[in-house]
Amino acid sequence: MLIDLLVEYKGLIWQGLTTTIKLSVIGILLSTIWGFIIGFFRNSKSEWLKIFGYYYVELFRNIPLIVQIFFIYFSFNIADVFPFLKEFARILKVEDANAFFSALLALVLYTSAYISEVVKSGLNAIPRSQIEAAASLGFTKLQMIFYIIIPQLFLIIIPALTNQYLNLIKNSSLAMTIGVAELTFVTQQIDAETFRGFEAATIVTILYIILTLTTSFIMSLINKWVSKNGRRTFE
């Protein structure tokens, strides 16, 4: 029975769930920030920033995520390179800082490449007349970005952004390949101990569905709020 297995291994399943949530939430936050920066680079007037953004996207979008995870994990100990990550790992209650942050870095690099393309497309969809009107009113570049571009950008890209967030949550399962004890890793552990892999996979599948549906619901609420308030602002 699923309930029996859930009760017996509730501690292990909870550990896997919280690890997946940590990877997903931090990954979404960082990949969004970096993806927006790269997206603005792609639309920059500077040729150097355009070239950097172009090759960044082509590099990380076209290398399989699992290869990136292996490369980062086996090339260097990220927790030794950035010692502050050890303290961060202690706060997050992460056992293997190197494995966790290697997987997190790969997720951020990979997902931000896709988010940057979403941002680039959104920027291209904003009418040029809006920028010209803001410039004629004396707006600085930063004022244009924060008061004109970003509010309209979110009106356009939230649905596509949601898809990338869902992909990141699902891709976090690849962290199991380097020993991060997330949900998929937990499934294998339970199967190895009980030979009840089907029940374990069913529980984990339900948890993934809950995570993705919750994310979709939150993004749907944000989309409604942005659409309501954003369109009122620009009417």
UniProtKB/TrEMBL annotation:
GO terms for cellular component: ATP-binding cassette (ABC) transporter complex. Pfam families: BPD_transp_1. Residues 17-219 form the ABC transmembrane type-1 domain. GO terms for molecular function: transmembrane transporter activity. InterPro entries: AA_ABC_transptr_permease_3TM, ArtM/GltK/GlnP/TcyL/YhdX-like, MetI-like, MetI-like_sf. Belongs to the binding-protein-dependent transport system permease family. HisMQ subfamily. This is Polar amino acid ABC transporter, inner membrane subunit.
